[in-house]
Amino acid sequence: MIMCLLGLLPGCATRHPTQVLVKDQPISKGHYSVQNAHSHNDYAQKDFFWEAYNAGFGSMEADVYLVDGQLMVAHNKKDIHTARTLAAMYLAPLARQVRKNKGYPYKNHKDALELLIDLKDPKDSPAYKTAIQLIRSYRALVNSKHIRFTFTGNIPGDHTMATATGNIYFDGVPGRIYSPSALKRIYMLSDNFARYSSWDGTGVISVDDYQQLQNTVKAAHRQGKKIRFWNAPDNLAAWQLMEELGVDFINTDKIQELSGYLNEK
Length: 265
What we know:
Structural class: alpha/beta
Number of helices: 10
CATH superfamily: Phosphatidylinositol (PI) phosphodiesterase
Distance between the termini: 9 Å
Oligomer: single chain
Number of strands: 9
Number of domains: 1
Radius of gyration: 19 Å
Largest sheet: 9 strands, mixed
CATH topology: TIM Barrel
Shape: globular
CATH class: Alpha Beta
């Protein structure tokens, strides 16, 4: 940590005293752990589900398309493979772990797990209803209070969101207006980091960009919502920035690197 703040490690940003992060000043809030880590596009990992799970991540993500009544996991429709279903890749192994851990996703019963399900089909697609039916077919998942299924992407409208029950939630967008009943089912807010800054994880982030990010984080927290930024730089300097900002879930494609950093603290 100290070496990074001094700019002695590759990829670390040395910040000028007039910038947001002051040189030699510890920036860790001390409460971050792998439970604050989100495995972005987890299905693209060689050891999908298991690498993030074994690292103790608090969140992982799967993009889905509805094809012939089945929810298929893929980033693009052309990449769909018959064996890569949401059930086989995520729900079934997670249900086994929950049964093994007596109703909890992890052996440590204080730890929670979120599966972020990104709906890629159009908003009027039956994909959401199909996903709910599929999740409910796994009693272990429905009954676990430490598992959360958060839908993102082309999520349904406010009325449908308001009817969600149990551990079904949604991912909203900062600044977007939702009905009070729908807002209750929005667990967190997510946004494109590029909307706020062009910072690439090297050098310093501008004070103006930092302020925009900070204001967005504070606004989310005032609403009682968690927040995450996707498409953000994915390196040590960026992870430290997310901590200083108070971002609840740190987005990453580098599971081992981020878990190593968070476990060192």
